[in-house]
Amino acid sequence: MFSGFMLNSWAAATMLAIVAGMVGFFVVIRGASFAAHALPLGTFPGAAAAGLAGVNPFWGLVGFALLGVAGISRLGRRQRADVATALTLITLLGVGTLCLSLSGQYAASAYALLFGQLLGVSRAALLPVGGICAGICALVLIFFRPLLLSAISPELAVARGVHAGRVELLFLALLGLATAMALPVVGALLVFSLLVGPPACARALTTRPGVAMALSVVIALVVIWAAIALSYESDWPIGFFVGALAAGAYGLGRAAAMMR
Amino acid sequence: MVGAGALLTPGFFENGPVRAALGVSFCAAMLSAMVGVFTIIRGQSFAGHALADVSSAGGAGAFLFGVNPLFGFLGLAVLGAGVLEMVGVQRARERDLATGVFLGAGLGVTALLLYFDVTMRSTSGAAISVMFGSMFAIPPGMVKLSLGLGAGAMVVMAMIHRPLLLCAAAPELAGVQGVNVRLIGFLHLLMLALAVTLSAMTIGAILSTALLIGPAAAALRLARRPGRAIGLAVVIGVAACWGGVWLAYDSYNWSGGHGWPVSFFIVTIIFTIYLASGLRRDRTMRV
Predict the structure, then answer these.
(1) According to CATH, what is the number of the domain A4-255?
(2) How much is the ipTM here?
(3) A247 near A194, Cβ under 8 Å?
(4) Residue B55 is part of a domain; what is its CATH number?
(5) Which of A17, A154, A170, B62 could cross-link with A220 by S-S, CB 3.0 to 4.6 Å?
């Protein structure tokens, strides 16, 4: 379980859980579940598009994630947020279907990118993943207060001179970057479980923002480590365990909140 | 008609799979557009998308057990509608959160079932046809079934459209007037599940949101009255589907025998119409 090729996965998954726990905390308090679902799902064909263009798949993912961020914030000016998100998602997926079909590796790569595969991390890919992870952590810590304030009390944030549009864009960009880095490890559909389940559980357990974010990182770490171990032992897809454990964490959190 | 026939690729209407695709996509587009208008007004785009994604577990399960995929998709979509209704949190943020967690769990199950599909039955194409649809591989028997389901759902929609609008616009007023707001909400989710199932069969589970939200969003920008918006959405949806089927069929001729996917053409048409609808509103507002 801890042999050479698995070590890459453990390292990437650990960095991913830290980022998902931090960014996910803001997903939950901003009520941005749909955006957190749409960005990873719309981003996954990016690898196929990069394959067609002959560049590193990682940059394809980053490119599609940024396109998604631009689409959601641009269409969101004239539309309700959920409709804008849905339209961005379908457009990216429509283009993605074509890229997947043209790139010829339709079946195999689509399943891996949608649902993830454990061995999908190469040593060369670890470096950009680590860099992006550090960048996201730094941004979240620097902009912790404006991000928090604009989510909890938009009026107060405006009064304090926080630019609501810029904070929204920053949040979406963080989400997009986290997505691009997490995709190859757990897959598009379950990046989302990791972004929503652990922070939702953490928020039910405590009301203090700093503690909630730290707790959500811890829960995300437990979820992904357990998912890797279970997936390795049973040979079942890692996505299943991430989804089930994240939902379990949310259920426990809500139960605990009701008991209090 | 001779002129139109000459424009189309020879053999377009004589082709069995094409006929099935046109029939099923007609039902899917029509029902999705109708339900979609209410879905947007009620702010339930995420629920619609979640039902579609969760129903893919049913599609994957149907492949595994060799059942008609329509029943697989439908079973899970209806189950999902039931769960969303039970979660039934009133505050929008909490509702989105619960929907999201449920969606994540459902997709995990899809991943597992697809994995079993590949390992036990060695149907490696299952992931693709479940997630992206298989428009030209619809079994002929399915056309009548989906026509029946679509017609039934449209009758229900026609019956509940007034209370549905009232609930969306003014829930308190609807409650005072004796409308069972919860029942109407659940019926809407059920119709959403049906619409999503039919779309999942044609353009795939993750793209069914295109038929649900796209035409309705464009129509709501063009028409102010709900009745007109519904009519317009249906026209846009059906036109996009049929146009997409024709372009995909035609693409075998110019793309070197590979054929571009139907879903790509349908989404492109819908998105173009959506962008164009914005242009028109700009002009009318300036006048």
Answers:
(1) 1.10.3470.10
(2) 0.84
(3) no
(4) 1.10.3470.10
(5) A17
From chain A, pick out residues whose CB is under 8 angstroms from the CB of B209: 86, 89-90
Q: Which residue in chain B has the smallest CA separation from A244?
A: B105
Secondary structure (3-state) at A260: coil
Phi and psi dihedrals of B147, rounded to 5? -60, -45
Which residues have C-beta within 8 Å of that of residue B76, sequence separation ≥ 6?
B54, B55, B56, B57, B58, B59, B61, B106
Interface with chain B: mutation pick from A33, A91, A223, highest number of B CBs within 10 Å: A33
| CB-CB under 8 Å, A247 with B207 | no
- Of the candidates A224, A215, A218, A214, the residue with the CA atom closest to the CA atom of residue A244: A224
Within a domain: residue B287?
no
Element (DSSP H or E) covering residue B103: helix B92-120
pLDDT of amino acid B94: 75
The total of structural domains in chain B comes to 1
Tell me whether residues A94 and B263 touch, CB distance under 8 A: yes
CA distance B57 to B112: 9
Is the CB of B96 less than 8 angstroms away from the CB of A197?
Answer: no
- The three-class DSSP label of residue B224 is coil
pLDDT digit of tens for each residue in chain A (260 aa)?
667 667 777 888 888 889 999 999 998 888 888 888 888 888 888 877 887 887 877 788 888 899 999 988 888 877 788 888 999 988 888 888 888 777 765 556 677 777 776 666 677 777 878 888 899 999 998 988 888 888 887 778 778 877 778 888 888 899 888 888 878 777 777 788 889 889 988 988 888 888 999 999 999 999 989 988 898 888 888 888 888 999 898 888 888 877 77
Q: Which of A69, A34, A23 is nearest to A195 (CA)?
A: A23
- What is the per-residue pLDDT for B11? 65
In a domain, B43, yes or no: yes
At residue B13, what is the residue type?
F
B45–A78: do the CB atoms touch at under 8 Å? no
Q: Is B120 helix (H, G, I), strand (E, B) or coil?
A: helix
CB contacts, 8 Å: A98 with chain B: 260-261, 264
Is position B49 within any domain? yes
pTM, to two decimals? 0.85
H or E, element range at B15: none
Question: Smallest CA–CA separation between A52 and chain B, in Å?
Answer: 15
Q: In the block, which residue shows the tokens 């693709």?
A: B128
Residues in chain B predicted with pLDDT less than 50, given as ranges, are 1-6, 283-287
CA-CA distance, A112 to A121, in Å (whole number)?
A: 12
Q: Which residues, 6 or more positions from B209, have their beta carbon under 8 angstroms from its beta carbon? A: A86, A89, A90, B45, B48, B49, B52
CB B181 within 8 A of CB B28: no
Residue ranges of domains in chain A: 4-255
- Residue A258 token pair: 């009701």
Q: How many CB atoms lie within 10 A of CB B32?
A: 36
Which helix (DSSP H) or strand (DSSP E) does residue B287 occupy?
A: none
